[in-house]
């Protein structure tokens, strides 16, 4: 299996320690989520991880342009480059599906994402860049930021043709969820779930705690894409939020997002749901799933652990993938 082994973290106060563990287990890259309504600041945690690790690549999975002026992001990238070294830094960027929806906003337009990427990469090269009608440039002297030009790879989180086009034009790769984007030399697939112990049932307490977050994400994904009829009980689940005021429903739905299962979702997250959607599986089933993803064009899998024992999840997934 030629797939690169990566992990992704719902960025927590312990993510820097989990990145250290992942490095020891052979993971090649650690992606950190950028959703400030849900997790600590991504750049602070990445720099903490840089201080605890020596080899593993570190990146945003993925940063959201509207949260920061491009100069702020350029300075953050420069800080991480100073801490980890340029060859260990990668920047994932997207339209902000989770980060924006969790704050009651729609994802950004791909035109804005492209404009932001052009400005950001220009700043990192040390160029004069126009943004919001004014010229700007990174002015940090030696000792106050990494020297320009700063050349780090960009991966674009794209689920459709517009995002894929931006990835091909401005990025070095693409970042997807559940399935890969074909046609890229670098195609990352984000996966949720757990590797079952021998003889363990998908509805065991341990498996549910470790993989349940993936079931919630699946329900939310099908809701956003108007496909709840494809999930048994999906329409009934959506009505569980009817008692929440419409202007606050996004807050309730994102409570515990990618960390655990909230009270509204819990009755609908079952071992059967997780098993049927390739999240709670045996070692052999996982390897079959990864082989299928590789055949579809995936070059890297980013496994996101959750639950009370993240080191166990990281170790089990690494051992499964490494054979």
Automatic annotation (TrEMBL):
Residues 17-201 form the Luciferase-like domain. The keyword Transferase does not apply. GO terms for molecular function: oxidoreductase activity, acting on paired donors, with incorporation or reduction of molecular oxygen. InterPro entries: F420-G6PD/mer, Luciferase-like_dom, Luciferase-like_sf. Keywords: Oxidoreductase. Transmembrane segments: none annotated. PANTHER family: 5,10-METHYLENETETRAHYDROMETHANOPTERIN REDUCTASE (PTHR43244:SF1), PTHR43244. This is 5,10-methylenetetrahydromethanopterin reductase. The lineage of its organism: Bacteria, Pseudomonadati, Pseudomonadota, Gammaproteobacteria, Nevskiales.
């Amino acid at each position: 299996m030629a797939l690169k082994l990566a992990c992704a973290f719902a960025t927590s106060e312990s993510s820097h320690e989990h990145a250290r563990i992942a490095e020891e287990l052979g993971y090649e890259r650690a992606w950190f989520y950028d959703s400030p309504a849900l997790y600590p600041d991504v750049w602070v945690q990445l720099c903490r991880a840089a201080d605890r690790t020596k080899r593993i690549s570190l990146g945003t999975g993925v940063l959201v342009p509207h949260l920061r002026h491009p100069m702020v992001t350029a300075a953050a990238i420069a800080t991480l480059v100073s801490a980890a070294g340029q060859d260990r830094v990668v920047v994932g960027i997207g339209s902000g599906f989770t980060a924006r929806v969790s704050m009651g906003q729609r994802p950004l337009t791909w035109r804005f994402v492209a404009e932001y990427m052009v400005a950001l990469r220009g700043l990192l090269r040390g160029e004069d860049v126009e943004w919001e009608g004014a010229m700007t440039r990174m002015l940090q002297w030696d000792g106050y930021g990494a020297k320009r030009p700063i050349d780090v790879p960009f991966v674009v989180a794209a689920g459709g043709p517009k995002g894929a086009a931006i990835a091909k034009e401005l990025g070095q790769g693409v970042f997807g969820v559940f399935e890969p984007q074909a046609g890229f030399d670098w195609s990352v697939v984000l996966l949720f779930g757990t590797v079952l112990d021998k003889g363990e049932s998908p509805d065991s307490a341990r498996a549910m705690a470790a993989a349940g977050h993936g079931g919630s994400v699946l329900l939310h994904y099908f809701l956003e894409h108007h496909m709840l009829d494809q999930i048994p009980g999906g329409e009934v689940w959506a009505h569980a939020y009817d008692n929440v005021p419409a202007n606050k429903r996004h807050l309730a739905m994102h409570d515990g997002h990618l960390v655990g299962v909230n009270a509204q979702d819990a009755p609908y997250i079952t071992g059967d749901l997780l098993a049927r959607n390739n999240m709670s599986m045996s070692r052999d089933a996982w390897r079959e799933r990864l082989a299928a993803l590789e055949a579809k064009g995936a070059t890297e899998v980013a496994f996101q652990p959750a639950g009370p024992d993240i080191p166990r999840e990281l170790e089990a997934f690494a051992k499964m993938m490494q054979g």
